[in-house]
User: Which sequence fits this backbone?
């Protein structure tokens, strides 16, 4: 019986524990970390899209088709990726706030209707 070759494991994943991330997810996380760490500097901002397009991409998935040159650029440019992440965080906070406001509105309406029936 032959032994399976040792597969390099990312730091923080000791042997014997289940790892729910496949190779593609691990690669994506490593790339994301490298981009945010500034491993892909672009000091002259060559080829960078304008901030309006980055905001549009951050606000809506599918704003550009997969494989669009802008996506390719963002995955090779730390400044653009960092900006995109900050816009995504901004829009995520806004969506969460809107969801919380909607829940409060529904609860208020339910409370008012319930109170009038008593
Ligand atoms: Zn860029």
Assistant:
């Amino acid at each position: 019986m032959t032994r399976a070759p040792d597969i390099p494991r990312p730091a923080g994943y000791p042997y014997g524990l289940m790892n729910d991330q496949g190779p593609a997810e691990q690669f994506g996380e490593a790339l994301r970390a490298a981009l945010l760490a500034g491993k892909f500097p672009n000091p002259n901002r060559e080829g960078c899209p304008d901030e309006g397009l980055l905001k549009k991409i951050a606000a809506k998935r599918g704003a550009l088709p997969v494989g669009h040159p802008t996506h390719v650029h963002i995955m090779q440019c730390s400044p653009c990726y960092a900006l995109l992440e900050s816009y995504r965080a901004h829009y995520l906070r806004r969506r969460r706030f809107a969801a919380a406001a909607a829940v409060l509105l529904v609860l208020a309406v339910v409370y008012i209707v319930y109170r009038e029936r008593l």
Q: What stands out?
A: The mean pLDDT is 87. The helical segments are 23-36, 51-59, 69-74, 78-117.
